[in-house]
Design a protein that fits this description.
By secondary structure, the chain is an all-alpha fold. Helix content is 92%, strand content 0%. The longest helix is centred in the first third of the chain and has 57 residues.
Length: 167
């Protein structure tokens, strides 16, 4: 490895730079997509909130003015639910972004290792690391999903309870 020619070194450096450029591009693309997704989700949530509020207002206007307190509580609950959903979505998106970044970094590291020292040991080690990272990401994603489900169930229960209490 020490007796490496200048031409080969130059080629390796060129390839390295190219790889780095590619990785940076990929990172930028991923970030942009995640941001757009977040914006879309936020807009949808806001629209839903507005729709629910309007619906509730229209429904309760026609009836007697005795149930004003109940209406406010229900609207508040709905708003809270929407906010929670939004927060969860944001968290999920952030997690996905972080995972993408990590993966890109790992890939770059792997490529650099391969380019610089063509060792089978290094390659194997990097592969193992990648596998481990993937497993960890999967586990985290599963956990997040479970949490979301639990929160949703809790919210639904609360809503049901409120509805029963109002009657």
């Amino acid at each position: 490895m020490m007796t490496m020619t200048t031409t080969r070194r130059r080629t390796t450096t060129i390839t390295m730079t190219m790889m780095m450029m590619m990785m940076t591009l990929m990172m930028m693309i991923t970030t942009m997509t995640t941001i757009t997704m977040l914006l879309v989700i936020v807009t949808i949530m806001l629209l839903l909130l507005l729709m629910t509020m309007l619906l509730l207002m229209m429904r309760w206007r026609r009836r007697s003015r005795t149930r004003t307190r109940a209406t406010t509580t229900t609207t508040m609950m709905m708003m809270m639910m929407m906010m929670m959903m939004m927060m969860m979505m944001m968290m999920m998106m952030m997690m996905m972004m972080m995972m993408m970044m990590m993966m890109m970094m790992m890939m770059t590291m792997m490529m650099t290792m391969m380019m610089t020292m063509m060792m089978m040991m290094m390659m194997m080690m990097m592969m193992m690391m990648m596998m481990m990272m993937m497993m960890m990401m999967m586990m985290m994603m599963m956990m997040m999903m479970m949490m979301m489900m639990m929160m949703m169930m809790m919210m639904m229960m609360m809503m049901m309870m409120m509805m029963i209490m109002m009657r």
